[in-house]
Write a structure and sequence with these properties.
By secondary structure, the protein is an alpha+beta fold. The protein has nine helices and eight strands. α3 packs across α4 and α4 runs antiparallel to α9. The model has no long low-confidence stretch (mean pLDDT about 85).
């Protein structure tokens, strides 16, 4: 995906929640870059140099479990941003941050973010509101992964991904879903097969389409609705 600054549609909700003067400052000081599935944006322990505000696509915070296994801790789409540790005093990235669905994002240098937060109170308010929502997402994800079935967890992840991409289809492999949810590849393959037979999704060659959201939601759990409520809550602007 080669989205340029001129072609990009500003969809990030944190950015859109700020007042016009602040939004202009943030866009003037940021650079639009593509998000390519599989790319690592930050490695765990790496210095955070930019806040990254996705407009399309999904970024995931990944936890290393043992020498060869990773699992998704939280994910971020157009509702949020990467770099919230800056709000807590800075420091290196707490996790690997990996692109799981293609898209594009604004890269905002931290010195420009610092200036924006000093000049515009709405920037700090919007970012703190999102940080609170991310904490809720983390808690819901922990509960969901502990209590619910593989089918419910896959359905929840696909619904959230569909909300974030806003496109008829998006690219994601069953291997990636299995890795993010800590499931066996064969388990995810069976769940996707069941969802296809039910008419909820279509899947071919790494391209997934949500065909019937209501049907897909019927396979999910209440965690999706709670995560969605947090993502859709109005930020202070």
């Amino acid at each position: 995906m080669n989205t340029t600054q001129d072609e990009a549609r500003i969809r990030n909700r944190v950015l859109l929640a700020t007042r016009p003067q602040a939004q202009q400052f943030l866009t003037d000081h940021s650079e639009i870059r593509p998000l390519v599935s599989g790319d690592t944006i930050y490695a765990s322990g790496q210095e955070v140099t930019h806040a990254i505000l996705p407009h399309d696509g999904i970024l995931s915070y990944m936890a290393q479990i043992g020498p060869q296994r990773v699992v998704e801790k939280a994910s971020i789409g157009a509702e949020g941003f990467v770099g919230f540790t800056y709000l807590m005093g800075g420091g290196p990235s707490l996790s690997d941050v990996v692109v799981t669905v293609d898209g594009y994002a604004s890269w905002l240098p931290l010195d420009a973010l610092n200036e924006a937060m000093q000049r515009f109170i709405c920037v700090r308010e919007a970012m703190l509101a999102y940080a609170q929502g991310l904490i809720v997402q983390l808690m819901e994800t922990v509960a969901c992964n502990s209590l619910h079935t593989a089918e419910q967890r896959v359905a929840r992840w696909l619904l959230v991904a569909d909300d974030r991409t806003g496109a008829p289809e998006f690219r994601v492999t069953q291997d990636a879903i299995a890795q993010m949810l800590g499931l066996r590849r064969a388990t995810v393959s069976q769940v996707c097969s069941d969802l296809m037979h039910a008419g909820a999704i279509a899947y071919s060659r790494g391209r997934l389409t949500v065909m019937d959201r209501e049907r897909l939601a019927s396979f999910g759990c209440e965690c999706y609705r709670r995560i969605q409520a947090v993502q859709l809550q109005p930020f202070i602007g």
